[in-house]
Structure formats: C-alpha cells, structure tokens
Amino acid sequence: MHRIAVIPGDGIGPEVIEQALLVLDKVSSKFGVKFEYIFIDAGGCAIDKYGVPIREEDLELVKKCEATLLGAVGGPKWDGLPGNLRPEQALLKLRGGLKVYANLRPAVLYDELKDSSPLKKEIVDKGIDILVVRELIGGMYFGPKGREVKNGDEVAYDTEVYSKSEVRRIAKVAFEAARKRKKKVTSVDKANILESSRLWRETVEEVAKNYPDVELAHMYVDNASMQLVKDPSQFDVILTSNMFGDILSDEASMIVGSIGMLASASLGEGSVGLYEPIHGTAPDIAGQDLANPIATILSAAMMLRYSFEMEDAAKAIENAVKIALKEGYRTKDIYTENCKLVGTKQMGKIICENI
Ligand code: ATP
Ligand code: MG
User: Fold this and answer.
1) How far is CA 83 from CA 78, 86, 133, 140, in A?
2) Contact between residue 263 and residue 274 where contact means Cβ atoms under 8 Å apart
3) Residue 220 DSSP label
4) For this structure, is 340 an active site residue?
5) Interface TM-score (ipTM) > 0.90
6) Which CATH fold would you assign to the domain 118-255?
7) At which residues is there a site annotated Important for catalysis (predicted)?
8) Which of 44, 46, 55, 207 is the most exposed place for a label (fewest CB within 10 A)?
9) What CATH code would you report for 1-103+260-355?
10) Among residues 222, 320, 332, 277, which one has the least CA distance to residue 106?
C-alpha cells in the first residue's frame, strides 16, 4: 500500500489529475499494488475555503505520505491578493516543507510530435531523450545577497555557494537516474571561471567513482547551451546547479515542443517526492475538456519510478502514451492535420486502455 497526497489545485489541475488517477488505478490492478489517495486542498481553492493557500495541518498530512501528486495552482481570480496569500505560496511551502533538493525534468521528443520541435529535421531525427537533474534549494538563488553603497556607488550581489554535501546528494540522484537510462551523465558547470564550479566538478568526480558503469562528461555551461540545440542526441542525464539548471531545463523543454507533454519530479530525502506537470492552471481552457493530461500522467509515471521503485509500471505508462500518439490521438494543443482530435477525458481513457 502506497499513500499518495493528491493536490488537484485550480483551473485544469483537477481535470488532468482525474485522468492521472484513472491511470494509477489501472496500474494498481495490472501490477497488484494498492494506492491510497489523500486529497488535499491547496492553492486558490484553499484560499476560497480556508483563507490560506495551504493549511498547516494539510502540510503535515502531506509530509506523512510517501509522495505528492499535484495538478497546478493559481489563476486570475486570486491575482489581486498580497504575496504571502497568493496560491503559488502553497508551492513554495510544499517544496520547502518536503526539502526537495532535486528537480528532474525529462525532455523527450516523441517521434509523432517531431513537427512541434523548432529544431531542424536532421537534428530531431537523431532523437531527443534528456533528463535534466537540477539542484533546487542551493546555489546562487539561496546564497548571501544584498545591496550596499560603496564609494558613492550602489552595488548589489548574489553569491553562489555550494557545500560538498549538497553537490554529493544531487550528483547521486543524477548517477542513480543514469543507471536506469543510457548510463551517461554530463555535469554542466563553469569550472574555468567559478570556484564553486571547481568544488562541484571535484565532488562529482568523487561520486562517479561509485558508479563505474556510468560514463561521466564535464561541460561548460556556455558550451552546453549551444550543444543542446546543435546536437541534443548526445545527452542522456544533465546534472547541474540551480541557476544553470533553471536556464538549461527551459531550453531543453522548448526543443521538444508542447508544454502539455512535460512532467517533473522534485525529490527530497528518502522517498518523499513532489510530482507535477510543468504547465500552469491554463485558465483559458479550464472546464472545457481541452487540457492535455499527458504531462500529469507522465508525472505519475515518474512517481512510480522514483518514489516507489516501480520501473516496469512507469515504463508501461510511458509506453501507453506512445501508443496513443502512434495511433494518432491528439488533444488540441498537439493536434496536426489528419490526426484524431480527442478531449482530456478520452485521452486519459485511451492511455488507460493501452496499459
Ligand atoms: P503558471 O504561472 O501557473 O505557470 P502560466 O501563465 O505559465 O501559468 P499556463 O497555465 O502553463 O501558463 O498556460 C500557458 C498556455 O499553455 C495557455 O495558453 C494554456 O492554455 C496552455 N496550456 C497549459 N497547459 C496545458 C495543457 N495541459 N494542455 C493544453 N494546453 C495547455
Ligand atoms: Mg508558467
């Protein structure tokens, strides 16, 4: 029995979560495993109900579960609220509360969706299947920052700080992930300039000794950003810092096309993980059965892979998505000529049937 905190959220959140849960139910019967869902209100719906983005007791409840599956939170209805009362605050509280230091963003280009990549045909034909492993709670975004006046001039600074233990734990996540993939880690840094990057590189080298079966390459971030559009097929797992990962993961998600397809996992200590599509609440299409549920369904697959070590079930879901695309089923966001246009619910149903 696995206990999962389920946070449908706002906008299309509940619609895409509904489909992901149907997929999990199918996995449950096929793989003989039981899931218990603990439904939790967070985001705009929690503000409407309780006056806060997420209640403390609900946060505690989430921490008692093995994993969290989240739709999306926010929307124009709550835009006027002060910063600490906005729906997005629920996300920060969840990430902080769960101490999720590793953000995993797979960027996979499906054969059927090659036309949606902005890259040239001869580049995409080589295939894109990248996992960006980004450090999420350290580095420049969390180091000492401030402003002061020096010699009559105003200065501002942000400091890149990494400890060996921080690098070690994120590197381990990358190597473990690579072991289940094509066994290659490309660690991205700026070690020719930055001291923190030199510590990063040294530490990654040390961790790599425990993974002799995984190939390790180092790449400077400027070169990596170029290589991502020049020949993305050379990458398997990209391991990088908070800021470089922020930038590179956006670049990686763009080269594979639609936002409705991209899943993510944020991992912390032990098996606790937060799984969510990278898209938002899409208020423009909410409640119309138009949302693509694939990003959330693939997020559920990541949950099975990383929190429950159910690699076979994760693969079965990913394969079911591929079959649906191969058979020509498309939600509106990925629709191209001569395909079969389906809504959120039908796409979910077809994927279920393919498992
Ligand atoms: P947030 O700030 O919550 O990340 P956002 O302003 O970045 O939200 P999204 O909610 O991600 O925006 O929506 C951006 C665009 O992508 C919208 O036009 C939306 O309809 C579309 N979109 C987002 N998710 C999906 C989906 N699952 N299926 C289809 N279209 C989507
Ligand atoms: Mg957004």
Assistant:
1) 10, 5, 29, 22
2) no
3) E
4) no
5) yes
6) Isopropylmalate Dehydrogenase (3.40.718)
7) 141, 190
8) 55
9) 3.40.718.10
10) 277
Residue in 58, 93, 101, 190 annotated catalytic: 190
Q: Which residue has the tokens 């449950």?
A: 28
Atom of ligand 1 nearest to the CA of 294: 27
* Cα–Cα distance measured from residue 239 to residue 217, given in angstroms and rounded to the nearest whole number: 10
* 12/43 Cα distance (integer angstroms): 13
Cβ atoms of residues 286 and 15 within 8 Å: yes
Cβ atoms within 10 A of the Cβ of 294, count? 28
Q: How far apart are CA 343 and CA 331, in angstroms?
A: 6
Q: Is 231 a catalytic residue?
A: no
**Catalytic site includes residue 246:** yes
Q: Rg of the chain over CA atoms, in angstroms?
A: 21
Task: Read off the pLDDT of residues 157-191 as tens digits, 9 standing for 90 and up.
Answer: 999 999 999 999 999 999 999 998 999 999 999 99
In 3D, which of 334, 337, 353 has the Cα closest to residue 345? Answer: 353
Task: Indicate whether this model's pTM tops 0.90.
Answer: no
